[in-house]
Amino acid sequence: MAEFGFVHLTDPHLRPAGERLYGLDPGERLRAAAADMARRHGPGSAAPAAFAVITGDLAHDGYEGAYALLREAVGALPFPVHLLLGNHDDRDAFRAAFPEAPVDAAGFVQQAVATPAGRFVMLDTHEPGQAGGVLCAARLGWLAERLAEGEEPVFLFLHHPPYRSGMPGMDRSMLAASEGLWAVLAPHRARLRHLFHGHTHRPIAGSWHGVPVSSLRGSSHQVALEFRDTGRVPGSQEPAAYAYVRVTPEAVVVHAHDFLDPTATFDL
User: Fold this and answer.
1) Are 93 and 124 in contact (CB under 8 A)?
2) How far apart are CA 240 and CA 222, in angstroms?
3) SS (H, E, C) 140-158
4) Which of 85, 163, 187, 213 could form a disulfide with 89 if both were Cys (CB 3.0 to 4.6 A apart)?
5) Radius of gyration of the chain (CA)
């Protein structure tokens, strides 16, 4: 495997067509992201993507009409899209709109995708009526089974971060009982190349138990950087982004791209 590339996008928070959220049109922004991804990372480009992964909060509060808009937007991409659920989603509405989406035996939207770079394992942390994420015994059992199936490198995807970011407004809704997730992952630590998540609406990079992690701003609104505990979650309209991820045997490189930034480019 010389090189493998894919796109990471998160938190589109779609509403029915034409409806705005926090003064923005999430559908318009997702269509702009899709057009930019197709242009920069479609077949024949300098940095082609094998697929895109969208790490949850696909629809804002699970609006059924939003999932129809999502299908239209991702259908314009020249490569497949893997969809995860977040706390704002509705599992039943999602499955009605995307009946072909892979699910496990218990009905959770989870899958493991074989790639030249390794196995991409995508988890469902959605828990109805709850802002924080949950991985119950059934979901963790499914993960343990997938990890036991081979020895290839593993890339992990989920909506909720399993670690505290230091931003109290978001840490209150991180993945609950994340030590349970680590108990399943720890025996396979040497195989874990990267963990990607959404939910925070922030560009974040670091490590958790020594495993490299990253997230990025959503394709719609953002969470403002705030380390004081105000009792609230501060929002912002910082630039929307997606990431192109380049994987080689030696490195995992995450290129965040503010796809709506009109700044001119020039030779240095």
Assistant:
1) no
2) 8
3) HHHHHHHHCCCCCCEEEEE
4) 85
5) 17
82: which residues sit within 8 A by CB, 6+ positions away? 51, 52, 53, 54, 111, 113, 120, 122, 157
Task: Specify whether the CB–CB gap between 99 and 132 falls below 8 A.
Answer: no
> Do the Cβ atoms of 70 and 140 come closer than 8 Å?
no
Q: CA 235, CA 209: separation in Å to the nearest integer?
A: 29
At 115, list the tokens. 């790639």
Q: Which of 196, 200, 197 is nearest to 217 (CA)?
A: 200
Phi, psi dihedral angles at 250 (to 5 degrees): -95, -20
Residue 164: both structure tokens together: 């505290």
CB 40 within 8 A of CB 47: yes
DSSP H or E stretch at residue 207: strand 204-208
> What whole-number distance in Å separates Cα of residue 134 and Cα of residue 138?
11
Which amino acid is residue 131, in one-letter code? A
Residue pLDDT tens, the chain, 268 long: 678 999 999 999 999 888 999 999 999 999 999 999 999 999 999 999 999 999 999 999 888 889 999 999 999 999 999 999 999 999 999 999 999 999 999 999 999 999 999 999 999 999 999 999 999 999 999 999 999 999 999 999 999 999 999 999 999 999 999 999 999 999 999 999 999 999 999 999 999 999 999 999 999 999 999 999 999 999 999 999 999 999 999 999 999 999 999 999 999 9
Which pair of tokens denotes residue 265? Answer: 């480019």
Angstrom distance (rounded) from CA 88 to CA 83: 14
Domain segments of the chain: what residues?
4-257
159 backbone dihedrals φ, ψ, rounded to 5°: -80, -55
31 close to 87: Cβ distance less than 8 angstroms: no
CATH number of 4-257: 3.60.21.10
